[in-house]
Design brief:
Blueprint (H helix, E strand, L loop, with lengths): L3 H9 L1 H22 L9 H5 L2 H15 L8 H14 L5 H17 L5 H31 L8 E10 L4 E8 L13 E6 L8 E6 L9 E6 L9 H9 L5 E4 L16 E6 L3 H14 L5 E7 L8 H9 L4 E7 L9 H7 L5 E5 L2 H13 L7 E4 L13
Parallel strand pairs: 7-8, 7-10, 8-9, 10-11
Antiparallel strand pairs: 1-2, 1-6, 2-5, 3-4, 3-6
Length: 395
């Protein structure tokens, strides 16, 4: 339990963290990787290079300071971050290392303003917060490995098939190398794939949505080739160009809270752009197989037809459903953006909406939904990479 004195001190530092948070987290990561370069085998190098991880951590530290006297308020965020941690194989022994360097970064950036009382208060607070993460993540690890075919941390999988879905998206079918069953997962969840790329000193991890409904045979991920983005595209380019049927990769168990509730029977709308279609495929296939009479709208935007994956699959699934609507828009054609009017005409406003795509796309779609009167609890969305703040009209 955190002392009242420490809570008061930590809360009083919130305005300082709001101003200096990114500077603190930038110093933190720099010092952390100098002292523990082995952790570069865990962290996403692209998110580091683009500053996204630093910003996300700064947001999290600021939120912890604001809510330090009511940590229950940030438990949903802890669970969301915990899902990411479990998918990367974060262990309890990593937390003291992080704590040491986070406190050191606060001292480095704030200088004399970081008094002993402030550092001691944050050390106490960090211990409480770290314990919360460790406890929640252990529950997630236990749940994952207790499933038939489940496991903890990384496991070898073999590439069973490789299928081109569009000009820039290829699917990889993955089966356990030891011949065991594939565990069930919730529609919308993701896995982490870890690869060793020739010429790269450290292992590289990327998280990809599972793009088909759960079965006992295989996982499927569908990867966009990010060959115009360096360093973001290193893993996707390697998978497209160098990873083939029969090759071995490492995976963590499915994780994530952006999931379809299969118990609901109310209407559902899937709203996606670009490679954001991938978790929607798992959700749509699950509904088609388990609830073919559930009303569904599937609204998708791509640049053009050549960059549109799964079109045939979606149409085939729609034919098996009683009340399903499929709308595709291509931005290169001039009228292909998903507007508020398109959503109003084709969405199911008496049910849930799942949104996935680039951050700018999600901001626009969620703001349209809010303008149309959708309640916050009806809107579900997923980020690629660290959870950055969306600019929404109301949340």
């Amino acid at each position: 339990m955190l002392s009242q004195k420490s809570m008061d001190i930590v809360k009083s530092t919130a305005p300082v963290l709001e101003v200096h948070g990114v500077a603190i987290t930038t110093a933190f990561y720099k010092n952390l990787f100098v002292a523990h370069p082995e952790l570069l085998n865990i962290f996403n190098h692209a998110n580091q290079a683009k500053g996204r991880q630093q910003t996300a951590l700064a947001n999290a530290v600021y939120a912890a300071a604001v809510h330090i006297d009511n940590l229950a308020a940030i438990i949903p965020a802890v669970k969301q971050i915990g899902q990411k941690h479990v998918s990367l194989g974060i262990k309890p022994e990593h937390y003291p290392i992080v704590g040491e360097h986070l406190l050191g970064a606060i001292k480095e950036v704030l200088g004399d303003a970081a008094t002993d009382d402030i550092i001691n208060a944050w050390a106490e607070a960090y211990g409480v917060i770290a314990d919360a993460f460790i406890g929640i993540e252990e529950e997630m690890y236990v749940a994952a490995e207790s499933k038939e075919g489940g496991w903890r941390f990384f496991k070898d999988f073999v590439i069973a098939d490789k299928v081109k879905e569009s000009d820039n998206i290829t699917s990889f079918y993955l089966k356990p190398a030891d011949g065991s069953a594939v565990p069930t997962f919730e529609p919308g969840q993701f896995i982490t794939i870890r690869v060793s790329i020739p010429g790269e000193k450290y292992l590289m991890n990327r998280q990809y949505s599972l793009s088909k409904a759960a079965d006992t045979e295989s996982f499927r991920i569908s990867v966009k080739k990010e060959d115009e983005n360096d360093p973001e595209g290193k893993v996707s380019v390697h998978l497209h160009n160098n990873v083939n049927v029969g090759d071995i990769v490492e995976l963590t168990a499915p994780a994530g809270e952006f999931i379809l509730d299969p118990e609901k029977t109310t209407p559902v709308t899937f709203l996606s752009g670009g490679v954001g279609i991938t978790p929607m495929m798992s959700m749509l296939e699950t509904v088609a197989k388990q609830q073919p009479n559930r009303p569904v709208s599937f609204i998708y935007s791509a640049r053009n037809e050549s960059l549109h994956p799964f079109d045939h699959d979606i149409r085939s699934l729609m034919e098996t459903m009683e009340d399903a609507k499929y709308v595709t828009l291509y931005s290169d054609s001039g009228d292909g953006f998903i507007s508020k009017d398109v959503i109003k005409e084709h969405s199911r406003n008496d049910g849930d909406v799942y949104v996935c795509g680039p951050v700018g796309f999600m901001e626009a779609m969620i703001n349209h939904l809010l303008d149309l009167g959708y309640a916050n609890e009806q809107i579900h969305y997923e980020f690629f990479g660290p959870a950055l703040q969306l600019e929404l009209v109301q949340v």
